[in-house]
Amino acid sequence: MSTNKKSSNNALAMTLLKGRTFIVLIVLMVFFSIKAANFLSLNTAMLIAKHVALYGILGIGMTYVIITGGIDLSVGAIVGLAGMIAGGLLEKGLTLQMFGVTLYFNVPAVFIITMLLGVVIGTLNGLVITRFNVAPFIATLGMMYVARGFAMIRSGGATYSKITGNEALGNTGWEVFGRNIPGTVIPVGVVILAIIAVIAAVILRKTAFGWHVLSIGGNEKAARLSGVKVNKVKIMVYAFSGLCAAVVGIIASSQLVAAHPATGEGWEMNAIAAAVLGGTSMAGGVGTIGGTIVGAFVIGVINDGMVMCGVSEFWQMVIKGLVIVLAVIIDQFQRNMQAKMALQARNENK
Question: Can you say whether the dihedral through the CA atoms of 336, 338, 344, 350 is positive or negative?
Fold first, then answer.
């Protein structure tokens, strides 16, 4: 085989690898449209869109974390805790026993408090990782149990079953985050996803902070020698991941008009899968927000498609696990191919 033909084949293979997630998405949609009669209906599309919004927002935060070479296993638990804090404030208020009063907050205040909670937990993750040199896997695994435990403690394991608020207390309207845009079929969650995605993509690709995030994942020592404040950037990245998780907790509780401490269980795997399927390298230094959104669509289509086809929840877990492993293998294959192509190009230029 001639060198030119081999280079052409390598270029084609690389193009297919880079677009693999989109190709998989199309194949899945065709497959489930054949297997499930109502898969292409508007109702199904809106249901998938609502789920994609949740996975996508979580995946965006996870993308930043993975790019720096880390991992955040606490996001699912933060989703549950955020919903419980918001639900408790709306349904029970905040009782100050010392003063014998109960404070009730309006929806904007609850929204801000919940987001700040996510930022605080994420910041704690970052501090433990950077200040005490704890591996991200261990630090965030521990925080996952802490957050899930506090979610249970918040209500004694019970559900806040009606968090619509009370007009007399001025705290109604929480369900707006789970509804559609008035006069349309577009879920509010999808709009929130789009806003976060655009901001995150611009920051990652067009700002010094984004360059710092990418450089830390590419070569942390070189980034540090270049003047990048590595610890500060990592803390901010984990804080952002916590913020994304809190937003998802808000949307999820709003969609259900209820809060349960187990909400978000296992969603960290959906976030990781969305990021990895979208081309974010587990080795760090590589990732795009657009790719993660496509990855979130793949996860959403797989989840809802399997449900519509009657696949058991246990097999769904097996399939999602295999998807993550396969995505990592393909990513490694792509990295090896890119290295070989770069070496070949250098040899040809000599």
Answer: negative
Three-state DSSP class for residue 194? helix
Domains of the chain, first to last: 24-335 (1.10.3470)
H/E run at residue 102: strand 101-103
Asked if 59 and 296 touch (Cβ cutoff 8 Å), the reply is yes
Kindly report, residue by residue over 11-41, the tens digit of the pLDDT. Answer: 666 666 667 788 888 988 999 999 888 888 9
Burial environment of residue 108 by CB neighbours within 10 A (0 to 12, 13 to 18, 19 or more): exposed
Is 94 strand, coil or helix? Answer: strand
Two tokens, residue 290: 């657009």
User: What's the CA gap between 150 and 227, in Å, rounded?
Assistant: 39
Average pLDDT, the chain: 91
3-state class of 138 per DSSP? helix
Distance CA 214, CA 209 (A): 9
pLDDT tens digits, one per residue of 181-214: 998 989 999 999 999 999 999 999 999 999 999 9
Q: What is the pTM of this model?
A: 0.92
Checking DSSP bridges between strand 94-96 and strand 101-103, what pairing results, if any? antiparallel
